[in-house]
Design goal:
By secondary structure, the protein is of the alpha/beta class. It contains 42 helices and 14 strands. This is BTAD domain-containing putative transcriptional regulator.
């Protein structure tokens, strides 16, 4: 037996369609099928079948319909409490089968194209197109149609990727004609045309879409579509692959057998992703070899190369969950779009790699358990792991164990660093130096760098110095002590200033850092040049430039540990540097949209490179991981004020770009510190911030507990403004639960506290919230008064972000009062402001409202495509609050279009 609802409602048994009776009986089955395997109450069925007026015999009618349907469906239609449930397997209901086949396509990239075609073939028209529409069905039908469209887009994208662009182009054109405002379809068509060398047509498609968006919606194309257009103009592939590999050293030598084995392992065919491991003692050249091989096989992995330092040799190796966060960020997955559990993150990561040919380099692994969650499942990918110890438990991995160089290789490396002429002139001395270094690559690099930086030295001078230290250098071939000896050999040659810089840089923790911090650590302007000396001595790694052009550096974890042993206690240097980061973060935060409820500390100006803040968002992007690390460093040092103030200063950026994971982690780490110190003001601020993250994740019970705890702490320390923001947060929780009267009580109390504290930005926010509650309660004139007042206050304060959010509320109010022209103007203005502020989450919120305004003004197709863009944002960032409202709007748009038949693809 099979039930089919993806088109006219049908039930098939024994190879033929069976009669389902009258409209009401068919509608009852349709309602149960749309909610398959979920209990539906008797009241729910009655409401769906008779939404306006119902006969007296309504219960009897339902039971009669159920009895008749059971003759066809047997035990699949069961009583469930006071209602009923249609209990079917995916193979017995086409809608469930569609979802299962699409999910299977994500798991099996090798068969994805054929599976998606199978899924699309299940559709015979609009869902339940032969039955009268019911409002109760609209969200479910909208979800099915949106899933169908997504599957069609995915199938066409795979066709283009697999060289079937010519066949996909007509279907993409037809799909774009049906959804003329859907930017993702337009972008895929631009890519397909470019790949077919039809650049002029590709640019015209983009130009037509841009004109349509600007002329009819007042919007500019989004970043993905702009990227596709720029790729055509630059004559390069759109959606450039991720390239995270560090540069390979120019003086690489030897390791021919190891390179050959690793290249063969990574290119071999396999039912799963091939894994190759490089193991050996610290300093033996594992990372250098891995990066060299990764570059050599790069053409075999055209979709990109991912690189992660797992910090296995540090005191605290990186947690696999945090590493997955970083990798998923590289794929554009942020905020609540990141699952909270490790297994779910790993599954999402594997899904993102499905169907791609990507090389993953995992450098300095601590254990197999750290590596396993980071392994792709797709056979087109491959993994290259380095570790101090052999990871024999990795199934199917090809292991290459590195040993010190052969004598000839060691001398070749020394010549590449110190100079071929010097080594050739004194070959015996060069061999003696290499032998004293135990032929260990890291030690040879240190020795070669010393020679390269001292042209007046003969080879004999260095050989004699190494002999003087032979009690340590004889240990170079065994374990960590050998590496320490090599480090010490190099550190002893630093100038006093370079040495001071080296040990102080170790205070910053296991994160990369910008070059300017050395001046703050030393409290000495103009000392950044010391970093060049440390780089030349191979004691500091240059990581290139970040997104705002400032050079960045990193201490290898073992070098950092060695430097910490030499540093002793330098609390003033650490606190001074953290205060510089705090001042920059606070200054940048004040240049971003105001985030309600966040406490940004008033800090004294310090010497720091303010010019880097010309683009505050770009600065936060460049420093995001380092700032998160700075919170850890401050907390570990017991600097509770700095820890919580740094965490809070990052919130406006985290909020703007939905970095909820970073927000929660930094606040949780700082919270431990402030509680240990008895810092109640800091604890209140952090609890309020964590509660806001719970609100974004729809975790209302946790949010309410956090807000209540913050309120009490704020009251104890006498912070009226903080107490007001916490009380308002409780009001938000009740409003989202539709407990409007209760919500109003909290908002009114919050307004009193905030007005007394003189926080006008927060006052504008709460006034708008009160207006929204009045609107929900049907008191439209009161809502208009409060919202208009809130917008005026936000405008007077120059708070464009707050004004845009109030405009969204006003647009909804205008729709309620039939002022549809004002509705459209308000919504369009809100979207324009928020897109200019690059606020993804709030832009999606405003796009749904603009879609409603477009519906009110007779533009259902534009509304349909616009709300689908918002849905994509909600699902990517995990905004659980926004998705249901967007689906309801999508259903209304689909209903207004009333388009019969299948998608024109």
């Amino acid at each position: 037996m099979s039930v089919r609802l993806l088109g006219p409602l049908e039930v098939w048994r024994d190879g033929r369609a069976v009669s389902l009776g009258g409209v009401k009986q068919r509608s009852l089955l349709a309602h149960l099928a749309l909610h398959a395997n979920t209990g539906v109450s008797l009241d729910g069925l009655v409401e769906a079948l008779w939404p306006v007026s119902r006969p007296r015999s309504v219960v009897s009618n339902v039971r009669t319909y159920v009895w008749q349907l059971r003759q066809l469906l047997d035990e699949r239609l069961r009583t469930h409490g006071t209602g009923y449930v249609l209990d079917v397997a995916p193979q017995e209901l086409d809608a469930l089968l569609f979802d299962e086949v699409v999910a299977d396509a994500r798991r099996r990239p090798d068969a994805a194209l054929e599976l998606l075609r199978q899924a699309e073939s299940l559709w015979r028209g609009r869902p339940l197109e032969d039955l009268p529409g019911h409002d109760a069905w609209a969200p479910a039908i909208a979800r099915l149609e949106e899933a169908r469209l997504a599957a069609t887009e995915q199938r066409l994208a795979l066709q283009v990727a697999q060289g079937e662009g010519a066949a996909a182009i007509p279907q993409l054109r037809a799909l774009l004609a049906e959804h003329p405002y859907r930017e993702s379809v337009c972008g895929q068509l631009v890519v397909a045309l470019q790949q077919e060398n039809r650049r002029a047509e590709a640019l015209q498609v983009y130009a037509d879409m841009r004109e349509r968006l600007a002329g009819e919606l007042g919007l500019e194309p989004g970043p993905a579509l702009r990227e596709a257009q720029l790729a055509v103009l630059r004559d390069e592939p759109a959606g450039a692959p991720i390239r995270q590999l560090p540069p390979s050293v120019s003086d690489f030598c030897g390791r021919a057998q190891e390179v050959e084995a690793l290249v063969a392992a990574l290119r071999r065919g396999s039912v799963s992703a091939p894994v190759a491991g490089v193991t050996g003692a610290p300093g033996v050249g594992k990372s250098t070899l891995a990066i060299r091989v990764a570059h050599q096989v790069g053409d075999h992995f055209p979709d990109g190369q991912l690189y992660v330092d797992l910090g296995g040799t540090s005191e605290h190796p990186r947690d696999a969950s945090d590493v997955l966060t970083e990798l998923l960020h590289a794929f554009g997955i942020t905020g609540a779009g990141l699952p909270s559990q490790l297994a779910a993150r790993a599954a999402l990561y594997r899904s993102r790699l499905a169907g791609r040919r990507v090389l993953v380099v995992l450098d300095d692994a601590a254990s197999v358990s750290q590596v396993v969650p980071l392994l792709p499942a797709d056979s087109g990918c491959a993994v290259l792991v380095t570790s101090r110890r052999r990871l024999s438990e990795l199934p199917g991995a090809v292991q290459v164990e590195l040993h010190p160089f052969e004598p000839g290789e060691a001398v070749e490396l020394l010549a590449g660093i110190a100079g071929e002429d010097r080594v050739s002139a004194q070959p015996d001395e060069a061999a003696a130096i290499a032998l004293a270094c135990g032929h260990l690559p890291l030690a040879i690099r240190v020795a070669g760098a010393r020679l390269a930086g001292r042209s007046g030295w003969s080879m004999q001078v260095l050989r004699e110095r190494l002999v003087d230290e032979s009690t340590r250098l004889r240990e170079l071939s065994s374990g960590e002590l050998a590496v320490r000896a090599s480090f010490d050999l190099s550190v002893r040659q630093l100038t006093a200033q370079e040495f001071d810089a080296f040990v102080r840089l170790s205070l910053l923790g296991p994160h990369d850092f910008p070059g300017w911090v050395v001046e703050t650590l030393l409290d000495e302007p103009g000392s950044e040049h010391l970093l060049d000396g440390l780089v030349d001595a191979n004691l500091l790694e240059s990581c290139g430039a970040d997104g705002i052009g400032q050079p960045r550096y990193r201490l290898h974890d073992l070098l950092r540990c060695h430097a910490l042993e030499l540093a002793g206690s330098l609390p003033d240097a650490l606190e001074r540097t953290l205060r510089a980061w705090l001042w920059l973060a606070v200054t940048a935060a004040h240049r971003l949209p105001v985030t309600f409820g966040t406490t940004i500390a008033a800090v004294d100006r310090v010497r720091a490179p303010e010019h880097l803040l010309a683009d505050p968002v770009a600065w936060f992007e460049a420093e995001r991981r380092t700032l998160c690390g700075a919170v850890d460093v401050a907390a570990a040092a017991g600097l509770d004020e700095l820890a919580w103030q740094l965490a809070a200063a990052c919130v406006p950026f985290f909020d703007l770009h939905s970095h909820y994971e970073d927000w929660a982690r930094t606040h949780t780490r700082a919270l431990q510190c402030v509680r240990a110190a008895g810092n109640r003001a800091g604890e209140a601020a952090l609890l309020r911030g964590l509660a806001q993250v719970h609100i974004y994740r729809n975790e209302f019970s946790e949010a309410e507990r956090g807000m209540l705890a913050a309120q009490e702490l704020y009251r104890v320390v006498g912070d009226e403004r903080g107490e007001g923001t916490a009380v308002a947060g409780i009001g938000v929780v009740h409003r989202l639960r539709a407990e409007y009267e209760r919500s109003m009580d909290f908002y009114v109390e919050a307004l009193r506290l905030l007005e007394s504290a003189g926080d006008l930005h927060s006052v504008a926010h709460v006034r708008a919230s009160i207006g929204a509650v009045f609107g929900a309660l049907g008191s439209l004139e009161e809502a208009r008064e409060w919202l208009t007042d809130a917008r005026q206050l936000a405008a007077d304060l120059g708070d464009a972000h707050r004004e845009a959010l109030v405009l969204v509320r006003l647009s909804a109010l205008y729709r309620s009062t039939g002022e549809h022209e004002e509705e459209l103007v308000s919504a369009r203005r809100a979207v324009t402001i928020l897109m200019g502020l690059t606020d993804e989450r709030c832009t999606a919120f405003a796009q749904v409202e603009l879609a409603e305004a477009l519906l009110s003004n007779g533009h259902p197709q534009a509304a349909h495509d616009l709300v689908q863009q918002a849905l994509e944002t909600y699902r990517r960032t995990g905004n659980r609050e926004g998705e249901p409202a967007a689906l309801r709007t999508l259903a209304r748009a689909a209903g207004a279009l009333s388009r019969p038949g299948t998608l024109a693809v």
